[in-house]
Specification:
By secondary structure, the protein is α/β, with parallel strands linked by helices. It folds into two domains: about 170 residues, Rossmann fold; about 140 residues, Glycogen Phosphorylase B (Rossmann fold, 3-Layer(aba) Sandwich), CATH 3.40.50. It is built from 14 helices and twelve strands. The longest helix has 15 residues. InterPro entries: Glyco_trans_1.
Length: about 325
């Protein structure tokens, strides 16, 4: 396709249905809505993952996003390239070298507090932070983790992480007669340990287990079926999306502090626990069991109300302002 629109390539390592790559697809949709010709490029020889492109925001938004392999990307002078994983920056440079080094402009979307860790992505993250380019941080915690490492803080912007609130929002709240707890198996099996501990104590609770590779619709249905959600993030995360999705789905959240998720751990309906501390999780579950269904319903309604402030529309408008200031001036 040949157009007069400015072009932006969104580069990802693969098409897996995981949070960081799904967020890059959100940014592709944002850019397409703002008069850009958008290419979604990957390093691996595979078709776009059906689970990834089934993302509701992508499906319901009119767009002309095109998919390509990075080693076939026709990079030209003036093109913009957005990367998130640091090693993708160097893969883009390899492609640019093969094309005679066109004058491309980078945007770095920083999605993880681990960018300040010398061991993250084979130390490429720290190296990349020293290069001067416009950057977007997805949370205050990510911003604070990297701001002292970039050469020009004026090129570092905070565009707060949005998510598909309208899709995940539970329209009405009614607590289950028996407390129903959800957890997923996306990153660890720690939820299984909490379940086993509950069963060992004979606690009157039921469980909703969300497997890897679940469809977006079934993920939403799982949140809506529960009263509370057991968050099991890694020790450090850039955001940990299931936590905010669960709040929007009307669940009280039991979750550890993963640094990047502190914005929503401030919610009244978020109960913070120690990292993989089974006894701490059980204590919070005991507290929920001690509540009346009406008290749980109030907290569940508060969860939905709190989550409503973090929208994709907010994120899209922030990206529009970023492009106007740093890429279009």
């Amino acid at each position: 396709m040949v157009t007069s629109k400015p072009r932006i390539f969104i580069v990802v390592p693969n098409y897996r249905q995981v949070g960081g790559i799904a967020k890059m697809l959100d940014y592709a949709v944002h850019a397409d809505s703002q008069r850009y010709e958008v290419w979604f490029a990957t390093n691996t020889n595979q078709h776009a993952n059906a689970g990834l492109t089934a993302k509701p925001y992508y499906q319901r938004s009119p767009h002309e996003i095109q998919f390509t392999l990075l080693d076939r990307a026709d990079l030209r002078d003036g093109d913009m390239v957005m990367i998130s994983l640091p090693s993708d920056f160097y893969r883009v440079l390899e492609r640019a070298k093969a094309l005679g080094y066109p004058d491309i402009r980078f945007i770095h979307l920083i999605q993880n507090v681990r960018h300040n860790n010398v061991f993250f992505d084979k130390s490429m993250a720290r190296d990349l932070l020293m290069k001067n380019m416009p950057r977007i941080c997805i949370t205050d915690q990510v911003y604070d983790a990297v701001k002292r490492l970039v050469p020009d803080e004026e090129l570092l912007e905070l565009n707060f992480h949005g998510f598909d609130f309208e899709f995940f929002r539970r329209p009405s709240i009614k607590a289950n007669r028996t407390l129903r707890l959800g957890y997923n198996l996306f990153k660890s099996n720690f939820g299984e340990k909490v379940r086993e501990a509950c069963e060992a104590r004979g606690l009157p609770v039921e469980f909703e287990v969300v497997p890897r590779g679940v469809s977006w619709e079934n993920l939403r249905a799982a949140y809506h079926a529960c009263d509370a959600f057991i968050g099991t993030p890694l020790r450090e995360e850039g955001y940990y999306l299931p936590g905010i999705e669960a709040l929007a789905g009307g669940d009280i959240l039991i979750c550890s502090d993963a640094v990047g998720n502190r914005s929503y751990l401030a919610a009244e309906a978020a109960l913070t626990v120690g990292y993989e501390d089974v006894d701490d999780y059980l204590a919070k579950i005991d507290a929920l069991l001690a509540m009346t269904p009406q008290a749980r319903e109030r907290l569940q309604a508060a969860a939905v109300d709190f989550a409503s402030q973090f929208s994709l529309e907010m994120e899209k408008q922030g990206f529009r302002a970023f492009l106007a200031e740093h890429m279009e001036a």
